[in-house]
Design brief:
The protein has eleven helices and nine strands. It is of the alpha/beta class. It has a seven-stranded mixed beta sheet with strand order 1-9-8-2-5-3-4, sandwiched between helices. A two-stranded antiparallel ribbon has the order 6-7. The longest helix has 21 residues. InterPro entries: LipA_acyltrans.
Length: 302
Protein backbone atom coordinates (compact mmCIF):
# COMPACT_ATOMS: atom_id res chain seq x y z
CA UNK A 1 0.00 0.00 0.00
CA UNK A 2 1.39 3.39 -1.02
CA UNK A 3 1.83 5.80 1.87
CA UNK A 4 0.94 9.46 1.55
CA UNK A 5 3.93 11.79 1.42
CA UNK A 6 3.72 14.67 3.89
CA UNK A 7 5.69 17.90 4.11
CA UNK A 8 7.53 16.45 7.10
CA UNK A 9 8.52 13.44 5.00
CA UNK A 10 9.98 15.76 2.37
CA UNK A 11 12.03 17.70 4.92
CA UNK A 12 13.31 14.50 6.55
CA UNK A 13 14.22 13.02 3.18
CA UNK A 14 16.02 16.19 2.14
CA UNK A 15 18.11 16.05 5.31
CA UNK A 16 18.79 12.34 4.84
CA UNK A 17 19.92 12.77 1.23
CA UNK A 18 22.09 15.72 2.19
CA UNK A 19 23.75 13.60 4.89
CA UNK A 20 24.34 10.78 2.39
CA UNK A 21 25.96 13.19 -0.06
CA UNK A 22 28.07 14.88 2.62
CA UNK A 23 29.32 11.65 4.17
CA UNK A 24 29.96 10.24 0.71
CA UNK A 25 32.58 12.94 0.08
CA UNK A 26 34.95 11.48 2.66
CA UNK A 27 37.06 8.28 2.57
CA UNK A 28 35.28 5.06 3.47
CA UNK A 29 37.24 4.14 6.60
CA UNK A 30 37.31 7.72 7.86
CA UNK A 31 33.50 7.80 7.67
CA UNK A 32 33.25 4.47 9.50
CA UNK A 33 35.56 5.70 12.26
CA UNK A 34 33.67 8.98 12.61
CA UNK A 35 30.37 7.10 12.74
CA UNK A 36 31.77 4.85 15.47
CA UNK A 37 32.89 7.90 17.45
CA UNK A 38 29.46 9.54 17.12
CA UNK A 39 27.65 6.33 18.03
CA UNK A 40 29.62 5.52 21.18
CA UNK A 41 29.61 9.18 22.29
CA UNK A 42 25.90 9.92 21.85
CA UNK A 43 24.19 6.52 21.90
CA UNK A 44 24.77 5.45 25.53
CA UNK A 45 23.18 8.72 26.69
CA UNK A 46 19.88 8.01 24.89
CA UNK A 47 16.90 6.60 26.76
CA UNK A 48 16.56 3.67 24.35
CA UNK A 49 19.83 2.33 25.77
CA UNK A 50 17.82 1.03 28.74
CA UNK A 51 16.26 -1.53 26.39
CA UNK A 52 19.71 -2.81 25.49
CA UNK A 53 20.62 -3.18 29.16
CA UNK A 54 17.37 -5.06 29.87
CA UNK A 55 18.01 -7.40 26.95
CA UNK A 56 21.53 -8.11 28.14
CA UNK A 57 20.33 -8.84 31.66
CA UNK A 58 17.77 -11.27 30.23
CA UNK A 59 19.98 -13.00 27.68
CA UNK A 60 23.30 -13.02 29.51
CA UNK A 61 22.58 -12.73 33.25
CA UNK A 62 26.12 -13.83 34.07
CA UNK A 63 27.49 -10.47 32.89
CA UNK A 64 28.51 -7.80 35.39
CA UNK A 65 27.23 -4.23 35.09
CA UNK A 66 30.66 -3.19 33.80
CA UNK A 67 30.59 -5.90 31.11
CA UNK A 68 27.09 -4.86 30.01
CA UNK A 69 28.19 -1.25 29.81
CA UNK A 70 31.12 -2.22 27.56
CA UNK A 71 28.89 -4.25 25.24
CA UNK A 72 26.44 -1.35 24.97
CA UNK A 73 29.36 0.98 24.20
CA UNK A 74 30.51 -1.41 21.46
CA UNK A 75 26.97 -1.78 20.10
CA UNK A 76 26.60 1.97 19.65
CA UNK A 77 30.05 2.14 18.07
CA UNK A 78 29.00 -0.52 15.55
CA UNK A 79 25.62 1.09 14.85
CA UNK A 80 27.25 4.46 14.24
CA UNK A 81 29.60 2.81 11.78
CA UNK A 82 26.69 1.10 9.99
CA UNK A 83 24.94 4.45 9.51
CA UNK A 84 28.00 6.28 8.23
CA UNK A 85 28.93 3.37 5.94
CA UNK A 86 25.63 3.65 4.04
CA UNK A 87 26.84 6.07 1.34
CA UNK A 88 29.86 3.83 0.70
CA UNK A 89 28.16 0.43 0.61
CA UNK A 90 28.49 0.01 -3.15
CA UNK A 91 32.22 0.71 -2.82
CA UNK A 92 32.65 -1.57 0.21
CA UNK A 93 31.12 -4.64 -1.47
CA UNK A 94 32.99 -4.39 -4.77
CA UNK A 95 34.85 -7.57 -5.69
CA UNK A 96 37.99 -5.62 -6.65
CA UNK A 97 38.31 -4.08 -3.17
CA UNK A 98 39.65 -5.70 -0.02
CA UNK A 99 36.97 -4.60 2.43
CA UNK A 100 35.21 -7.98 2.41
CA UNK A 101 36.36 -11.59 2.56
CA UNK A 102 33.96 -14.49 2.05
CA UNK A 103 34.26 -18.01 3.45
CA UNK A 104 32.24 -21.02 2.33
CA UNK A 105 30.61 -19.63 -0.81
CA UNK A 106 31.41 -22.90 -2.59
CA UNK A 107 28.56 -24.49 -0.60
CA UNK A 108 26.09 -22.80 -2.96
CA UNK A 109 27.48 -24.78 -5.91
CA UNK A 110 27.26 -28.23 -4.32
CA UNK A 111 25.50 -30.79 -6.57
CA UNK A 112 22.51 -31.17 -4.22
CA UNK A 113 22.06 -27.38 -4.00
CA UNK A 114 22.99 -25.97 -7.39
CA UNK A 115 19.51 -26.16 -8.94
CA UNK A 116 17.59 -24.96 -5.89
CA UNK A 117 16.40 -21.59 -4.64
CA UNK A 118 18.71 -20.23 -1.94
CA UNK A 119 17.33 -18.71 1.27
CA UNK A 120 20.05 -16.59 2.88
CA UNK A 121 19.35 -15.91 6.57
CA UNK A 122 21.32 -13.31 8.50
CA UNK A 123 20.97 -11.14 11.61
CA UNK A 124 21.50 -7.52 12.65
CA UNK A 125 25.18 -8.17 13.33
CA UNK A 126 28.20 -6.28 11.95
CA UNK A 127 26.81 -4.43 8.94
CA UNK A 128 23.86 -6.52 7.81
CA UNK A 129 23.42 -4.38 4.68
CA UNK A 130 26.58 -5.81 3.10
CA UNK A 131 25.20 -9.37 3.10
CA UNK A 132 22.81 -9.22 0.11
CA UNK A 133 24.88 -6.66 -1.78
CA UNK A 134 28.02 -8.79 -1.51
CA UNK A 135 26.13 -11.92 -2.59
CA UNK A 136 24.68 -10.16 -5.64
CA UNK A 137 28.10 -9.11 -6.93
CA UNK A 138 29.33 -12.68 -6.52
CA UNK A 139 26.58 -14.20 -8.64
CA UNK A 140 23.69 -14.51 -6.18
CA UNK A 141 21.26 -11.59 -6.61
CA UNK A 142 18.27 -11.95 -4.35
CA UNK A 143 14.92 -10.66 -3.21
CA UNK A 144 15.59 -9.03 0.15
CA UNK A 145 12.74 -8.79 2.65
CA UNK A 146 13.01 -5.51 4.56
CA UNK A 147 11.21 -3.48 7.20
CA UNK A 148 10.62 -0.15 5.48
CA UNK A 149 11.12 3.16 7.34
CA UNK A 150 7.92 5.11 8.05
CA UNK A 151 9.06 7.85 5.68
CA UNK A 152 8.47 6.56 2.11
CA UNK A 153 11.00 9.00 0.62
CA UNK A 154 13.73 7.87 3.01
CA UNK A 155 12.72 4.27 2.28
CA UNK A 156 13.17 4.92 -1.44
CA UNK A 157 16.62 6.43 -0.89
CA UNK A 158 17.72 3.41 1.16
CA UNK A 159 16.25 1.04 -1.42
CA UNK A 160 18.30 2.74 -4.13
CA UNK A 161 21.42 1.71 -2.21
CA UNK A 162 20.20 -1.79 -1.38
CA UNK A 163 19.26 -2.56 -4.98
CA UNK A 164 22.30 -0.92 -6.59
CA UNK A 165 24.09 -4.25 -7.04
CA UNK A 166 21.17 -6.08 -8.63
CA UNK A 167 18.92 -7.08 -5.73
CA UNK A 168 15.16 -6.62 -5.47
CA UNK A 169 13.66 -5.12 -2.31
CA UNK A 170 10.26 -6.18 -0.92
CA UNK A 171 8.53 -4.96 2.23
CA UNK A 172 7.75 -7.40 5.04
CA UNK A 173 4.19 -8.70 4.95
CA UNK A 174 2.07 -9.67 1.96
CA UNK A 175 4.41 -8.02 -0.55
CA UNK A 176 7.44 -9.82 0.87
CA UNK A 177 5.65 -13.18 1.00
CA UNK A 178 4.58 -12.95 -2.64
CA UNK A 179 8.02 -11.81 -3.78
CA UNK A 180 9.69 -14.64 -1.84
CA UNK A 181 7.46 -17.32 -3.35
CA UNK A 182 8.07 -15.90 -6.82
CA UNK A 183 11.84 -16.04 -6.25
CA UNK A 184 11.60 -19.65 -5.11
CA UNK A 185 9.54 -20.63 -8.16
CA UNK A 186 12.25 -19.04 -10.32
CA UNK A 187 14.99 -20.85 -8.34
CA UNK A 188 16.45 -17.48 -7.39
CA UNK A 189 17.55 -16.33 -3.91
CA UNK A 190 15.84 -14.67 -0.95
CA UNK A 191 17.53 -12.67 1.83
CA UNK A 192 16.00 -12.52 5.33
CA UNK A 193 17.11 -11.14 8.70
CA UNK A 194 15.61 -13.48 11.28
CA UNK A 195 16.72 -12.15 14.67
CA UNK A 196 13.88 -9.77 15.57
CA UNK A 197 10.56 -10.43 17.27
CA UNK A 198 7.70 -11.51 15.01
CA UNK A 199 4.37 -11.63 16.85
CA UNK A 200 2.79 -14.03 14.35
CA UNK A 201 5.90 -16.19 14.02
CA UNK A 202 7.05 -19.45 15.62
CA UNK A 203 7.85 -19.68 19.33
CA UNK A 204 11.39 -21.02 19.69
CA UNK A 205 14.03 -20.59 22.41
CA UNK A 206 16.54 -17.77 22.00
CA UNK A 207 19.20 -17.49 24.72
CA UNK A 208 17.13 -20.09 26.57
CA UNK A 209 13.99 -17.93 26.62
CA UNK A 210 10.90 -18.66 24.46
CA UNK A 211 10.74 -15.97 21.77
CA UNK A 212 8.42 -15.33 18.84
CA UNK A 213 10.67 -15.95 15.85
CA UNK A 214 10.11 -15.17 12.14
CA UNK A 215 8.55 -18.22 10.49
CA UNK A 216 9.70 -17.33 6.96
CA UNK A 217 12.98 -19.33 6.99
CA UNK A 218 11.11 -22.49 8.03
CA UNK A 219 8.16 -22.03 5.67
CA UNK A 220 10.32 -21.09 2.68
CA UNK A 221 13.01 -23.63 3.50
CA UNK A 222 10.40 -26.40 3.51
CA UNK A 223 9.72 -25.91 -0.19
CA UNK A 224 11.11 -28.92 -2.11
CA UNK A 225 13.28 -26.73 -4.35
CA UNK A 226 14.67 -24.43 -1.62
CA UNK A 227 17.54 -24.60 0.86
CA UNK A 228 18.37 -22.33 3.83
CA UNK A 229 21.90 -21.05 4.48
CA UNK A 230 22.76 -19.00 7.60
CA UNK A 231 25.18 -16.19 6.66
CA UNK A 232 27.28 -14.56 9.39
CA UNK A 233 28.73 -11.04 9.11
CA UNK A 234 31.79 -10.42 11.28
CA UNK A 235 33.14 -6.88 11.52
CA UNK A 236 36.94 -7.04 11.30
CA UNK A 237 37.63 -3.30 11.25
CA UNK A 238 36.41 0.04 9.87
CA UNK A 239 34.20 -0.84 6.86
CA UNK A 240 35.80 -4.30 6.80
CA UNK A 241 33.97 -7.62 7.16
CA UNK A 242 34.38 -11.37 6.99
CA UNK A 243 31.28 -13.21 5.77
CA UNK A 244 30.86 -16.86 6.70
CA UNK A 245 28.46 -19.08 4.75
CA UNK A 246 27.44 -21.78 7.21
CA UNK A 247 26.13 -25.24 6.34
CA UNK A 248 22.52 -25.51 5.22
CA UNK A 249 19.72 -26.14 7.71
CA UNK A 250 17.48 -29.06 6.79
CA UNK A 251 13.77 -28.23 6.93
CA UNK A 252 11.46 -31.18 6.07
CA UNK A 253 9.44 -30.63 2.89
CA UNK A 254 6.00 -29.10 3.27
CA UNK A 255 6.12 -28.32 7.00
CA UNK A 256 3.73 -25.91 8.69
CA UNK A 257 4.30 -23.86 11.83
CA UNK A 258 4.17 -27.11 13.79
CA UNK A 259 6.85 -29.12 15.55
CA UNK A 260 9.15 -29.51 12.53
CA UNK A 261 9.14 -25.75 12.04
CA UNK A 262 9.90 -25.19 15.72
CA UNK A 263 12.84 -27.60 15.56
CA UNK A 264 14.28 -25.88 12.51
CA UNK A 265 13.90 -22.39 13.95
CA UNK A 266 15.35 -23.57 17.27
CA UNK A 267 18.45 -24.67 15.37
CA UNK A 268 18.60 -21.36 13.50
CA UNK A 269 18.14 -19.35 16.71
CA UNK A 270 20.95 -21.37 18.29
CA UNK A 271 23.24 -20.51 15.38
CA UNK A 272 22.42 -16.79 15.58
CA UNK A 273 22.89 -16.88 19.36
CA UNK A 274 26.38 -18.34 18.89
CA UNK A 275 27.26 -15.45 16.56
CA UNK A 276 26.07 -12.92 19.14
CA UNK A 277 27.98 -14.57 21.98
CA UNK A 278 31.10 -14.50 19.79
CA UNK A 279 30.92 -10.68 19.43
CA UNK A 280 28.02 -9.37 21.56
CA UNK A 281 28.88 -5.74 20.86
CA UNK A 282 28.16 -6.23 17.15
CA UNK A 283 24.48 -7.17 17.65
CA UNK A 284 21.64 -4.65 17.75
CA UNK A 285 20.38 -5.05 21.33
CA UNK A 286 17.81 -2.25 21.05
CA UNK A 287 14.70 -4.29 20.13
CA UNK A 288 12.41 -5.97 22.65
CA UNK A 289 13.18 -9.49 21.43
CA UNK A 290 11.40 -11.44 24.18
CA UNK A 291 7.82 -11.56 25.55
CA UNK A 292 6.57 -8.88 27.93
CA UNK A 293 6.34 -11.42 30.76
CA UNK A 294 10.09 -12.05 30.57
CA UNK A 295 10.83 -8.36 31.09
CA UNK A 296 8.22 -8.08 33.85
CA UNK A 297 9.73 -11.01 35.77
CA UNK A 298 13.20 -9.52 35.36
CA UNK A 299 12.05 -6.22 36.87
CA UNK A 300 10.32 -8.03 39.74
CA UNK A 301 13.51 -9.85 40.70
CA UNK A 302 15.79 -6.77 40.66
Amino acid sequence: MTRDVTFRHKIEALGFRFLLCLVGLFPVKACSNFGGFMGRTIGPRLGITRKADLNLRLAMPELSKKERKQIIHDMWDNLGRVIFEYPHLKEIVRTDRDYITVEGIEKFEAPDVKDKALIFVGAHIGNWEVLPMTAALRGYPQTIIVRQPNNPLVAAAIDNIRTSTGNISAAKGVEGARASLKAIRNKSAVGILADQKMNDGIEAPFFGIPAMTPAAPALLGSKPNAVVFPIQCIRTGPASFHLVCHSAIDFPDGISRGQAGVEGMTELNSIIESWIREKPGDWLWLHRRWPKDAYRKLKETT
